[in-house]
Specification:
heterodimer, A: 485 residues, alpha/beta, Amidase signature (AS) enzymes, 2 domains, 15 helices, 38% helix, B: 99 residues, mainly alpha, Histone, subunit A, 3 helices, 33% helix, 4% strand
């Protein structure tokens, strides 16, 4: 069988269980694909080839014994901010360039239990802070649809790798849009779950009240499959929800009768490209044809999300990143004379510009005299944003809007202007602020570049948004168009 | 939220000190420009009436999770020490804290 790397996870799983292919064959095909295209795409920080082949052989043994899970033998990529025992975990930062974790995080552990095959670690904006992947301390991942464009961020490596068939699926993390925005820009499916659905144990912390791990996949059925494998309570994450995870694959219907979907007018921001706006309007027609009742709604506090996010996320980051002191692990300035000098030099050398900017911003927002005006104010507005969502979900099953106001932009275009870069996530941040799930699904093209359609649902409404995404995907052909590499 | 534009170079250096990030004069200048631009965006929050509104720390209701205090094996000492930048005789070497 040829072109095994093009398979989706559910296709690969069926072929593996039916013994039409082996995990070794599949893993070799994906590794060959990485060899062929990753010099151009640059999605991987670390390729763990030897480890992958060993896991593939073990998966084939499991399959022979009939003891399988849905992802047994399926090769995947982890964003490089999820710790992997014995495989370096860098967060694409100089600070952790040589850090080899002595333990597995929850995702690595769950994937091992499934018998999935880890191919390596995907590039990201340093410590997941960024929307273009250009903040990686190592190199910028490129968009498989046009190598002069960014893949989005911060899960740029995982999204680009999924689009370029350099993995069968990937896991990313999303603090303000870091799964959905790059998934949209790379033409793949990305889901940010409800806060607390997926364990954050072993996810290097950025903003703890906003971070969530989720699947990045080639289609919606895969997304449901992978979400089912990673969701569920973990006592090592005290914010993990006590919730019985449903079989998300059973939620995938092609009829949307009986569903009410809102289109919040505030998401159609002035900086939105006309191509994105038109594609979204076309998508809304498709949802209507599928039986959904779609109406315009209003979420008046949407405009405050950016400010709320850029106060809360850097504040939490400034506290979380205080641990990088060059003593127990990570980069260390060894030639300093005093403790304070060593600490300051370590952090000066180890962190890139954007990470420093956010630590400084957070430190300022939390400092004496400014706490009430910034941090506390932002937390109160966060309540208002949450309540607006809660109230709209009393009348509507889901909301749809574009994922990103623009298609993939050029490498370098927004790098010198932090405020413009921050606005890249303007349509995704509200879901993190409210803790609700959101999915981006391929929703058209503009100038040959993919557009993402975003669907948000109420807390623990993953089944509903997956159902809408699936019905939309099955009624359109956007997900079948692949980049030419 | 009033003095954003007046964020001085000295303020920036003070924040860097609080954050324990070494910063050069030039870096402090660039950082000041960036921070002033970003802080301007935050003024929009002055438009929101928040008196009587409770702050949200977490988007889901979080309660303390307790577990039994059971002794469990920890990681091997060599594994834990394998990432330490400065080691002497199987111990983490640090600089003097008191001068």
């Amino acid at each position: 069988m040829n072109n095994l790397e093009k398979l989706t996870a559910h296709e690969a799983s069926r072929l593996l269980i039916d013994k039409e292919i082996s995990s070794v064959e599949l893993t070799e095909a994906v590794l060959a694909r990485i060899q062929k295209v990753d010099n151009d795409v640059k999605a991987y920080v670390t390729i763990s080839e030897e480890f992958a082949m060993q896991q593939a052989r073990e998966a084939d043994d499991l399959i022979s014994s009939g003891d399988t899970f849905p992802l047994t033998g399926v090769p995947f990529l982890l964003k490089d901010n999820m710790v992997t025992k014995g495989i370096r975990t860098t967060c694409s930062s100089r600070m952790l360039e040589d850090f080899v974790p002595p333990f597995d995080g929850a995702m690595s552990e769950r994937m091992k239990r499934q018998g999935a095959v880890l191919l390596g670690k995907g590039n990201l904006d340093e410590f997941a802070m960024g929307s273009s992947n250009e903040n990686s301390a190592f190199f910028t991942t490129r968009n498989p649809w046009d190598l002069s464009k960014v893949p989005g961020g911060s899960s740029g490596g995982p999204s680009a790798a999924t689009a370029a068939d350099e993995c069968i699926f990937a896991l990313g993390s999303d603090t303000g849009g870091s799964i959905r925005q790059p998934a949209a820009l790379c033409g793949v499916v990305g889901l940010k779950p409800t806060y607390g659905l997926v364990s954050r144990y072993g996810l290097v912390a950025f903003a703890s009240s906003l971070d969530q791990i989720g699947p990045i996949t080639k289609d919606v059925a895969d997304n449901a499959l992978v979400l089912g494998a990673i969701a569920g309570r973990d006592f090592r994450d005290s914010t993990s929800l006590d919730y019985e995870v449903p079989d998300y694959s059973k939620c995938l219907h092609t009829n949307l009768s009986g569903l009410k979907i809102g289109v919040p007018k505030e998401y159609f921001v002035s900086e939105m490209e006309i191509g994105v706006q038109e594609a979204t309007m076309e998508s809304i027609k498709v949802l209507r044809e599928l039986g959904a009742e779609v109406e315009e709604v209003s979420l008046p506090s949407t405009a405050f999300s950016l400010a709320v996010y850029y106060i809360i996320a850097p504040s939490e980051a400034s506290a979380n990143l205080a641990r990088y002191d060059g003593v127990k692990y990570g980069l260390s300035s060894l030639d300093s004379d005093t403790m304070w000098e060593a600490l300051e030099k370590t952090r000066q050398m180890g962190f890139g510009d954007e990470v420093k900017r956010r630590i400084m911003l957070g430190t300022y927002a939390l400092s004496a005299g400014y706490y009430d005006a910034y941090y506390l104010k932002a937390q109160k507005v966060r309540t208002i944003i949450r309540e607006e969502f809660n109230s709209i979900f009393k009348d509507y099953n889901a909301l749809v809007m574009p994922t990103s106001p623009t298609v993939a932009f050029s490498i370098g275009e927004r790098l010198s202007n932090p405020v413009q870069m921050y606005s890249s996530d303007i349509l995704t941040m509200p879901a993190n602020i409210a803790g609700i799930p959101g999915i981006s699904v391929p929703g058209g093209f503009s100038n040959g570049l993919p557009i993402g359609l975003q669907i948000m649902g109420p807390a623990l409404g993953e089944g509903t948004i997956l159902r809408i995404a699936y019905a939309y995907e099955q009624a359109t052909e956007w997900h079948l168009v692949r980049p030419k590499l | 939220m009033s003095n954003d534009e007046e964020l001085s170079l000295e303020d920036v250096k003070h924040i860097a000190l609080l954050a324990r990030i070494g910063i050069t004069e030039e870096e402090a200048n660039d950082m000041r420009d960036d921070l002033v631009d970003i802080l301007k965006q935050f003024k929009i929050l002055n438009r929101v009436e928040t008196s009587g509104v409770q702050p949200t720390g977490h988007s889901v209701d979080v309660t303390s999770v307790m577990r039994d205090d059971v002794v469990k094996p920890s990681y091997a000492r060599e594994d834990i020490l394998s990432n330490v930048p400065d080691i002497e005789d199987h111990r983490i070497r640090v600089r003097a804290i008191f001068e």
